[in-house]
Design a protein that fits this description.
By secondary structure, the protein is α+β, with helices and mostly antiparallel strands. The chain folds into 2 domains: 36 residues; 108 residues, Cupredoxins -  blue copper proteins (Immunoglobulin-like). Helices cover 20% and strands 34% of the residues.
């Protein structure tokens, strides 16, 4: 093996060190620019519920043997079980699309306080409701049209937290 003169090695180390420092400075600079240009990259406190969001949900209504029979499968839960459950925060804009996948029966949908009157859907129809969750509490979601599996479609819940 041939010995490399010491000054060459030291010069190479200096160049590598300078290149490494430049790369680190560039990466930190780019990260800072991104963090301050796009505030959503900066972590936000999870306890802050003052920022409202738009939240979307889909409710499928159908009869057995569909795996989603009832409302999103409520038919297969013990009678009286709260299902489905939608959780949102006060001030959130809530968008719920209800789809009647049944091929024979009319189904309905209502939410206490937010859509007391409700609506009905013929087989194959869908309907979207939008509202702001302005009141904290638990509100029953249910089928407001009597059908063959009606008892299994009475215990959904919209839970609005502060």
């Amino acid at each position: 093996m041939r010995d490399v003169p010491r000054p060459r090695i030291e010069k190479r180390l200096r160049v590598n060190w300078v290149v490494g420092v430049v790369i680190v400075v560039v990466i930190v600079s780019i990260g800072s620019i991104i963090a301050f240009s796009y505030p959503s990259f900066i972590s936000q406190s999870s306890s802050s519920s003052s920022t409202s969001q738009v939240v979307e949900f889909t409710i499928i209504e159908s009869d057995p043997p569909d795996p989603l029979a009832g409302m999103n499968g409520s038919y297969y839960k013990p009678l009286g079980t709260q299902w489905p459950i939608i959780r949102v925060h006060q001030g959130d804009t809530v968008i719920i699309t209800v789809i009647n996948n049944d091929s024979r029966e009319i189904h309905g949908f209502a939410i206490d306080h937010y859509d007391d009157r409700g609506f009905s859907l013929a087989p194959g129809e869908q309907h979207t409701i939008t509202f702001v969750a302005n009141e904290v509490g638990s509100f029953r979601m249910y089928c407001n049209v009597f059908c063959a599996i009606h008892p299994y479609m009475q215990n959904g819940a919209l839970i609005v937290s502060p």
